[in-house]
Amino acid sequence: MTATIETRTVAPPVTTVRFHQVGKTFGQSTKAVVALDQVDLAVGPGEFVCLVGASGCGKTTLLNLVAGLDQPTSGRIELNSSRPAVVFQEAALMPWLTAAGNVELPLRMAGVGKAARRATAAELLELVRLAGLGDKRPHELSGGMRQRVALARALASTTDHTGAGAGKPSLLLMDEPFSALDAITRDVLQGELLRIWRATGTAILFVTHDVREAVRLGQRVVLLSSRPGRVVREWNVDGLTDGAEAAAVDEVNAALRTVISSHAA
Amino acid sequence: MPPEATRVHPVDDRDAGSVEAGLDALDTPVTAYRESPVRRIAARALPPIGAIAVFVLIWQVLWAAAFWPEFKLPAPVAVWDQIWQLVVSGEILELFWTSVHRAVIGFAISLLIAVPLGLAIANITVVRRGVGPLVSGLQSLPSVAWVPAAILWFGLNDRAIYWVVLLGAVPSIANGLVSGLDQVPPILPRVGQALGAGRWSGIRYILLPAALPGFLGGLKQGWAFSWRSLMAAELIATSPDLGEGLGQYLHNGMSLSDISMVFAGILLIFVVGVGIELLVFRPLENSVLRARGLTQGVR
């Protein structure tokens, strides 16, 4: 191996989210499935971290734990942000609401007034380059556009400054958000995500099974093993250019292959 | 701000924007061509009008051939005369008012009972297991079966009639709501939770609107059940105190052995049932389906 990529194990001192020996088991006794085992992970404010791993590595479980959709069996998660925004693999827009209505939904549920809701929704739709399309219904939009509405909606759910997390750094959780899109749309949306990340300064925890995507987007790439999901290694891939980026992709891919082949027996 | 985002991106920002705009333009689904309203209405109204014309023609022919005696099969004109007489005397308004206002009030009370019941069945496992089969069973029990009990309990009055209507409509509406809620894609409540929905705001903003198409189906069936239960109740429970509704009118026709009056009664009951469906439920359903892009269901 000739690649000169430093591996980082020391977490930054201030964190948006930190896992302390987190474990998650589904089911009981003999039929129990260990999804996550002793996971230590930290994401700093404004940091872009990608999680990669094969099927069954508990990537989605891990995001659900951060989002509060599920509770860890052991260990604890220290969350130092406003409510994490979540973008799922499917856009899952509410089909009875317009694009703007979807973006306004989290604000409506948080009790934000109509005028403020409108303004925020228009702002966020502009951020994802959908200004003027607010009154379209989900079925009138393409897959890529729907996913951008979903992103705007997720951002709206963290920009609520009324709750306990007011003023703290925000966190965006993304669960393979581009994997259902065609190649060119995915490519463009990856660029868009980086632009939005820079514009908003939000921390991002991004789950994917695409190593190339992880290396292109993330500052750090974390590899999880499968069943049980453990942190195997992490790479600092911030600011890599063409040659170094390709080398990093190869190295992470090789590590991922090793993890997968260990399941062959 | 992200610390020192120094990544070199192969495509510059403005370029990415125009590629994206191009993709948006190409990928946006094309909205289907819509014909003119006159043609659309004509295309929808003509087939049933034609069917009715054919039906009346066959009736006229059968009557003219005198297969059955006059007291069994009246002439279409005789039935029309009965209805016209009701219209001219203004009696038709009283018949309609008595029956329709009962049906509407009964339907409204059913709605108030069925919605909480449906929500409880759909969301609480114990209630679903305990009460769910009971409600489904009640749906298949003809509510006319309750008429004797209702008369014994309440006497010959409006309360007996409402009781029968309620038992006809509540199970249908509740079951419609339950199946509507069961068919909500599980991702939607999950997304709602991730967006910060609590228990009640989740029901109000996510579950109920998502269940609306199925619920509307239940409402439609509930209306049909409440209308037919009402007619059965009016037909069986006749008393001067009750006022004269369509069921009572039909009953009077039978008592007078006046077949043209009986036919007129059946026709009027049919017209009200179909009319409410066409004027209230069909447009409601169509607008809900169209807003969600489910246009193949739009009639």
Task: Give me the secondary-structure topology.
The complex is a heterodimer of chains A (265) and B (299).
Chain A: E1 17-26, E2 33-43, E3 48-52, H1 59-67, E4 74-79, E5 85-87, H2 99-109, H3 114-127, H4 143-158, E6 171-175, H5 183-200, E7 203-208, H6 211-217, E8 220-224, E9 231-236, H7 242-261
Parallel strand pairs in A: 3-7, 3-8, 5-6, 6-7
Antiparallel strand pairs in A: 1-2, 1-4, 8-9
Chain B: H1 13-27, H2 37-65, H3 76-89, H4 91-123, H5 125-140, H6 147-154, H7 158-182, H8 187-194, H9 199-236, H10 246-255, H11 259-291
Helix pairs in contact in B: 3-11, 4-5, 4-7, 4-9, 5-7, 6-7, 7-9, 8-9, 9-10, 9-11, 10-11
CATH architecture group name of the largest domain in chain B: Orthogonal Bundle
Calculate the mean pLDDT score of chain A and round it.
82
Q: By helix and strand content of chain B, what is the structural category?
A: mainly alpha
The count of domains of chain B is 2
Q: What would you say about this model in short?
A:
The complex is a heterodimer of chains A (265) and B (299). Chain A contains seven helices and nine strands, in the order βββαββαααβαβαββα. Chain A has 265 residues and is α/β, with parallel strands linked by helices.
Question: Main traits of this protein?
Answer:
heterodimer, A: 265 residues, alpha/beta, Rossmann fold, six-stranded mixed beta sheet, three-stranded antiparallel beta sheet, 7 helices, B: 299 residues, mainly alpha, MetI-like fold, 2 domains, disordered N terminus
What do you see in this structure?
The complex is a heterodimer of chains A (265) and B (299). In chain A, 36% of the residues lie in helices and 22% in strands. Chain A is built from 7 helices and 9 strands. The model of chain A has no long low-confidence stretch (mean pLDDT 82). Chain A is globular and about 55 Å long. The longest helix of chain A is centred in the C-terminal third of the chain and has 20 residues. Chain A is α/β, with parallel strands linked by helices. In chain A, the strands form 2 sheets. A 6-stranded mixed sheet of chain A has the order 5-6-7-3-8-9, sandwiched between helices. A 3-stranded antiparallel sheet of chain A has the order 2-1-4, with helices on one face. Chain A folds into 2 domains: 169 residues, Rossmann fold; 75 residues, no CATH class. Chain B is mainly alpha-helical. Chain B has 2 domains: 30 residues; 214 residues, Orthogonal Bundle (MetI-like fold). In chain B, 77% of the residues lie in helices and 0% in strands. Chain B contains 11 helices and no strands. Classes of the chains: A alpha/beta (265), B mainly alpha (299). Chains A and B meet through helix 2, helix 4 and helix 5 of A and helix 1, helix 8 and helix 9 of B.
